[in-house]
Design brief:
This protein is mostly helical. Helix content is 78%, strand content 0%.
Length: 313
């Protein structure tokens, strides 16, 4: 177990290094000059040069990367060009809103997707299976921002059941839930489509095993076969499915934040990109990526605890 945990930690360190590197060089592809944005169109060349020197933008790209990497190890991701505050603080301040939306959407996705996946696996080849798979395929095919816009048009504008945009700035739990309901449902339906298909595949693989056929031949009730034998052994694959779709859920939550004009990391990164705020974009991408990687690593460790066979892989 100790060797397995050490291997997981080493893989995590290498992955984080790759994320830092990609985040640094990726934002350099954004056109525009941060110094020009900060000082305006009428700034003199001397003032722009002085600001670039203070921000380290005059140095070769490799030395900028080396300096950024050294500061990132200590948690210093620079100051936001927009606000002047530490970029990591700006991102962490908006992170709870994104986690709330992603978490609510993920809960709905699991509640919808896992039972539907089991149901379609039990009725493989039936009309129920076909219709559910077509619905899941449609959910995967439609972009989440399109689903968001369509839901705003139907549920907010036509039916007026939910608010179209924004999030509650006060008013208690009920108001927060009221503003969260529609974005969370859009996210939940989108992610549930993935979970349904993958859960169905995991259940079908277990149902096709020899011990399931033996149990059926011995006259064991179908309900007991599904829940006591098949589902119990499919828990690990289903947990893996949920872990994999967490990254999709968080990424989709960022798009939904933009569509519904909700506060969160997505809105923060969008503003940072528009302002050529390199430190804030890097911090946002890095915090999100680190969160996904850490969650998946913890899930891998949880699998090893539940199933010792995973430690040998």
């Amino acid at each position: 177990m100790e060797r397995y945990l050490l291997r997981q930690v080493m893989q995590l360190a290498v992955t984080l290094l790759g994320i830092v590197t990609v985040a640094f060089f990726l934002v350099r592809l954004i056109p525009g000059d941060p110094a020009q944005y900060m000082l305006g169109d009428y700034a003199t060349e001397q003032a722009l040069d002085a600001l670039r020197v203070s921000m380290g933008l005059d140095q070769p790209l490799f030395w900028q990367y080396a300096g950024y990497l050294g500061r990132a190890v200590t948690g210093d991701l620079g100051n936001s060009v927009i606000t002047g505050r530490p970029a990591v603080e700006e991102v962490l301040a908006s992170l709870p809103d994104s986690l709330l939306l992603a978490g609510a959407g993920m809960v709905l996705a699991v509640i919808i997707g896992v039972p539907l996946g089991i149901l379609t696996a039990m009725r493989q080849g039936s009309w129920t299976d076909t219709l559910m798979m077509l619905a899941a395929l449609a959910g995967i095919s439609f972009p989440v921002f399109w689903l968001g816009l369509a839901s705003i048009l139907l549920f907010a504008q036509e039916l007026q059941w939910f608010p179209a945009l924004g999030a509650s700035s006060g008013g208690g739990f009920g108001t927060t839930l009221y503003y969260l309901a529609l974005p969370a449902m859009v996210l939940g339906v989108s992610v549930a489509a993935y979970i349904t298909r993958l859960t169905r595949s995991a259940m079908l693989e277990i149902i096709g095993q020899d011990y399931i056929r033996v149990a059926r031949a011995m006259g064991v009730p179908e309900r007991r076969i599904i829940w006591r034998l098949a589902f119990k052994n499919a828990v690990i694959p289903i947990l893996a499915i949920i872990g994999v779709t967490f990254a999709h859920s968080l990424g989709s939550a960022i798009l939904i934040e933009v569509v519904f004009s909700r506060p969160g990391v997505g809105s923060t990164i969008l503003k940072a990109v528009s302002a050529r705020d390199y430190p804030l974009v890097q911090a946002g991408v890095l915090v999100l990526a680190v969160g996904v990687v850490v969650v998946n690593t913890l899930l891998d460790m949880a699998y090893a605890i539940v199933d010792p066979r995973m430690r040998k892989r």
